[in-house]
Predict the 3D structure of the following.
Amino acid sequence: MTREQVLALFESIKRGRTRGGGRALNKPLLLLHALARFADGDERLRFTEIEDAVKRLLIDFGPADGPYHVSYPFWRLQNDGLWVVENADAVEENASGDPRSLVALRELDPVGRFTDEVADALRTDPSLVGELMDGILADEFPSEAYDDEVRTAIGFDRDPPSDVILTRRRRRDPTFRKRVLDAYEHRCAVCGFSAMVGDAHIGLDAAHVKWHQYGGPDEVPNGLALCALHHRLLDRGAFTVTASGSRERVVEVSERARGNEGFQQWMLAYHGQPLSEPVRTEYRVSEPATVWHQKQVFKGLPRT
Ligand SMILES: [Zn+2]
């Protein structure tokens, strides 16, 4: 199999999307884990090892609520032409073609691995592993800072990332950033942070509330001017924004987020507080964008 064929095969996998625009990260996270292990020389992975690792990744980086069924991607990836489960005949299937019993699957603990053709291609061209991972990261996650956290979690630190990341992420509208920052007068909508060196604004981002990867538009009502810290906390679901019609937008901090005095000062102090108002009320974050973020990114329940 050529490099291009392998790239196309990974592209063709139905992954990361549910019909309602939700995040379905089972396959992407399993593939990231398997690619990282492959790069370490572990080409044959037991189901229970994958289950533990991918479940942890889903809890950290997936939508807030489980249940997390790692047996589905482990089994269903066989239909995508790049993954085999050894001894698959010994696994009993149910009517929908999934393993009938999780207990039995754990007991049998079969090996999953890339097909021989894919494995050969990955061995022949070691840069392919990183490129495939970058493709998945760029498709699923909102920022390079987020990629780094995922890479660290799967134990695959690498530098620099391929330009796959950059070219894919650059597809967004280049004026989005300016329009969002102008709408909030170049201040963080949560904490008001603003800094300049010479004429350049530093440490301020235009964050997508509904991620670009999931169809979030490059429009001001889907954006927020946030300092680098609040951008990362928003993307990791430490806080969310609630919107209700014409009322101001409010910060809600997750009950699962915690930290030291800095966290108290820079995050908890804003719980229940309104965001700064943009220069026009129609620029406020839209309700559909906040609802998506609450469901797909926010971790757990708001504090009371
Ligand atoms: Zn801030």
User: Anything to note?
Assistant: Strands lie at 45-46, 83-85, 111-114, 196-197, 200-201, 204-208, 223-227, 239-242, 250-253. The chain has 13 helices and nine strands. The pocket of zinc ion is lined by residues 188, 190-191, 193, 226-227, 229-230 (CB under 6 Å). The CA atoms of residues 152 and 158 lie 9 Å apart.
